[in-house]
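Summary of Year 1 activities. Much of the first year was spent building the evaluation harness for sequence design. The harness presents a backbone, in tokenized form, and records the residue chosen at every position. We chose the following record to illustrate the format because it has been used consistently in internal testing since the harness was completed.
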């Protein structure tokens, strides 16, 4: 997790911090973050789409190679790879957007779980001190993956002000009062949804709509891709929809494991992806 925090969470945290400073709303900052990521990745999306179209154009030649050397797998592989090289087609290029999406999601999870470090720009070592102090305050050994979220919640309670100010001897030179003031200004709610909360499996509140809309937006995106994507149109019905149903099931299950803010990002990302088809 330290690797994700250092090399993925930190740079994405700066982007999220900038978005948050611009709009002042955590929920809108996530939407702006999603939009920026799509804009930045748009040139890559165009390259991938052109690569897919090139594959369709090469398919008759690939079929000819396969028929001419039927049973000779080595020759088929060699001539196919030579064709790819000559036409500058990359079979792996289509995986790049998926890898980047995974990186963005992992980074965003880290940002949402660590708002003191990424939104308030508090030094990680100082954050660790607050986490330990909050665990002692709550009478537990550790706070778990959402430790900094629990620190923010504790700092919002005026009754805990003197307790946190008592950490001054452990944190020389740190303006604890300013950190508490900033923590009290961070609003994790958006459209009635606590973006720091993980949706439970059984939920009748608005929080339960996040996995539902994640499911629906993913299903809509898969349907549009099966209809419009040149490579997927060439696949069989069961191949297309087998992958689609797995994707829908996974994305729905995934949003039950992470804070709702990640689910909001996923929904917004799916809807923006529809505009790029």
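For this record, the design step produced the sequence shown next.
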């Amino acid at each position: 997790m330290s690797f994700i925090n250092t090399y993925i969470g930190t740079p994405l945290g700066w982007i999220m911090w900038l978005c948050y400073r611009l709009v002042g709303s955590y929920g809108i900052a996530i939407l702006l973050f999603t939009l920026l990521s799509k804009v930045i990745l748009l040139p890559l999306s165009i390259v991938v789409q052109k690569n897919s179209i090139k594959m369709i154009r090469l398919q008759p030649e690939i079929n000819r190679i396969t028929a001419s050397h039927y049973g000779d797998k080595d020759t088929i592989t060699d001539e196919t790879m030579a064709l790819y090289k000559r036409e500058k087609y990359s079979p792996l290029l289509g995986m790049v957007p998926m890898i980047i999406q995974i990186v963005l999601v992992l980074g965003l999870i880290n940002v949402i779980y660590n708002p003191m470090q990424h939104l308030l720009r508090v030094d990680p070592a100082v954050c660790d001190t607050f986490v330990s102090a909050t665990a002692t305050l709550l009478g537990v050994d550790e706070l778990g993956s959402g430790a900094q979220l629990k620190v923010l919640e504790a700092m919002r309670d005026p009754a805990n002000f003197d307790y946190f100010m008592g950490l001054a001897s452990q944190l020389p030179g740190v303006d604890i009062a300013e950190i508490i003031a900033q923590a009290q200004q961070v609003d994790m709610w958006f459209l009635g949804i606590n973006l720091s909360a993980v949706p439970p499996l059984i939920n009748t509140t608005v929080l339960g709509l996040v996995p539902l809309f994640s499911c629906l937006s993913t299903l809509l995106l898969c349907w549009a891709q099966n209809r419009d994507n040149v490579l997927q149109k060439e696949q069989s019905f069961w191949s297309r929809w087998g992958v689609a149903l797995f994707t829908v099931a996974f994305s729905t299950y995934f949003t039950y494991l992470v804070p709702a803010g990640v689910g909001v990002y996923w929904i917004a990302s799916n809807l923006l992806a529809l505009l790029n088809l």
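The beta strands are 189-190, 193-194. Quantitative recovery figures across the full test set are reported in Table 2.
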